[in-house]
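User: Teach me something about this protein's shape.
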Amino acid sequence: MTAAPFWDAHAAQRLAHGPPQPLQPPARLEWTQRPGIGPAADLLGDNLTGLRILELGCGAGHNTAHLAAVGALAIGVDRSTGQIERANAHYGHTGALFTQAPAVGYLRRGIGHLDAIFSVFGAIGTSEPSRLLGACSRRLGRHGVLAFSVPHPRRTGVIPLRPRHREAAALPDGTSGSVDRFDVAPASWACYLNRAGLLVTGLHDHFAPVDAQWPTTLLVTARKP
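Assistant: First, the predicted structure itself:
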């Protein structure tokens, strides 16, 4: 099961419990699996008001909605129709825009430069890195920011020998699905970003929970020269 079918199944199970209701945007943008660990939205810029910011793999829209609430022109893109349905129902009232589309396709069709692009356990990490990072680079304006968090490749103590693999993931009803994932070493992410024409500004290990034996989240930042 690739990422889109898994998240379609995830959304279908959520929607089966009843229509999603409007929600207040979260008070904080989260980069890790646990709230309050790591930086906040200011990683994307000192003043987010009016910035054009795109989330790749927005899911139910929580982080995109937070950015809209603090004044950004926030757009969330996801391949899953069900997830976009949830995002619009939860946060359509915030001014955030949500669109169903593959990440690379959306980036290539778009017009105009973006100030920032980000992904939180989203499209970056579940798609082939070269094409996606290259498409991100082409859409970012000068000094534009790219930031993404992925499950840390060393979360089990060792980095997998083969970057691409299929990983088990739990659905809301307790059954198991799987997603294709790219577990890329930090130095390799730096190489991918440099080849895409981006300058790496940070490779950060985060432990969530804080007492985890191994880092659980890798947070990567880069910018367009």
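Now, about its shape. The chain has a mean pLDDT of 92. The CA atoms of residues 22 and 91 lie 6 Å apart. If you'd like, I can walk through any region in more detail.
User: That's plenty for now, thanks!
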